[in-house]
Amino acid sequence: MPLSGAHVDRGDGRTPDQRGFANVLTVDVEEYFHPNAMDAAVDPSRWNALPSRVEHNTHRILDLLSEHDVRATFFVLGWVAERLPRLVVEIARRGHEIACHGYAHRLVYRLGPERFRDDVARGKRILEDCIGSRIAGFRAASCSIIGTTLWALDILIEEGFEYDSSIFPVHHDIYGIPGFHRFAVRLRRAAGEIVEIPLSTVRLLGRNWPVAGGGYLRIFPYWITRLSVQRLNRREHAPAIVYVHPWELDTDQPRLPAGALSRFRHYTNLRRTESRLRRLLGEFTFAPIRDAIHCDDVAVETPAP
Ligand SMILES: [Zn+2]
User: How much distance in Å is there from the Cα of 79 to the middle of ligand 1?
Assistant: First the structure.
């Protein structure tokens, strides 16, 4: 499958081969109480009363990226942008790409088409007002564009998005379309076209395994992440799509009374996130989606034979 990875000129005078493949780093900017795994523990009506930690934690990521001279794509939640427009302005000022994570972090399959459109349009409008330019990219809460919610792609096209990065081609209880394309693909939908940039997987023992983001980055040993990114780059000539959340660096965040599985996914190895991110940034080349994946060049999906 043709891929649209690009070598990014970091201005360091080295040739593209020496610089290596440009992977993608994405940051989903939200509070520690926003993940849907916390829905049962904290009702959204209580969000305003909880201490905010997202600005400080996002600044830690921004400083880490500045140290390594790396630019990333930040999918910012509208709820956060509405309260902290200065944070969105600061992310953009440092040269990162601003993209949309919806407004209220609701699962697409719980919202339905009408409420999904309202949520997306509201989040996009707030972000565009913050930075004064158009937002091209979207990521759904908990990657909740699944087999039964592909209508969401039509709504994203109609709302003016160029790309979506919400589909995880894996089996999971909250998200995932196991048989979906593993790499960037242009989808032809009733409403038009949109580029889908799936989250990273490696193929092993006949199935896709999620790698290089969120809990997978924290819970698997680092060597698995490194090997997976190398394999994607060298064998499949594709960029890894790495994702992190500001709360994943925050070991002191208030512990919420979620179920055992949610607590495991949310709190395991928070103390390792920063060092692992630092190692990734040191060992691989990263760029924002807008620079690493040229949407205009992404091949159109071909029907399965
Ligand atoms: Zn999120």
Answer: 11
What is the CA(105)–ligand 1 centre distance, in A?
A: 6
Question: Where are the alpha helices (H) located in 146-221, listed in sequence order?
Answer: 151-158, 214-219
> What residues contact residue 228 under an 8 Å CB cut-off, 6+ apart?
200, 202, 211, 212, 240
Which of 29, 3, 1 is CA-nearest to residue 298? 3
Distance 76 CA to ligand 1 centre (A): 9
Ligand 1 center–CA 16 separation, angstroms: 33
User: Using CA atoms, how far apart are residues 18 and 38, in angstroms rounded to an integer?
Assistant: 43
Are the beta carbons of 62 and 76 closer than 8 angstroms?
Answer: no
Span 111-137, average pLDDT: 98
Pairing relation of β-strands 207-210 and 201-204?
antiparallel
CB 85 within 8 A of CB 130: yes
How many angstroms is it from 245 CA to the middle of ligand 1? Answer: 8
In 145-212, the DSSP E strands lie at: 163-164, 185-189, 192-196, 201-204, 207-210
239/200 Cα distance (integer angstroms) = 9
Give the model confidence (pLDDT) of 65-86 as tens digits. Answer: 999 999 999 999 999 999 999 9
pTM of whole model > 0.85? Answer: yes
The phi-psi region of residue 143 (left if phi > 0; otherwise alpha if psi is between -120 and 50; otherwise beta) is left
Answer for the pair 192, 198: CB distance below 8 angstroms, yes or no. no
What b/e sequence results for 87-110 when a residue is b if at least 16 CB atoms lie within 10 Å of its CB, and e otherwise?
A: bbeebbeeebbbbbbbbbbbbbbe
Q: 17: CA distance to ligand 1 center in Å?
A: 34
| Owner of token pair 């709504």 | 155
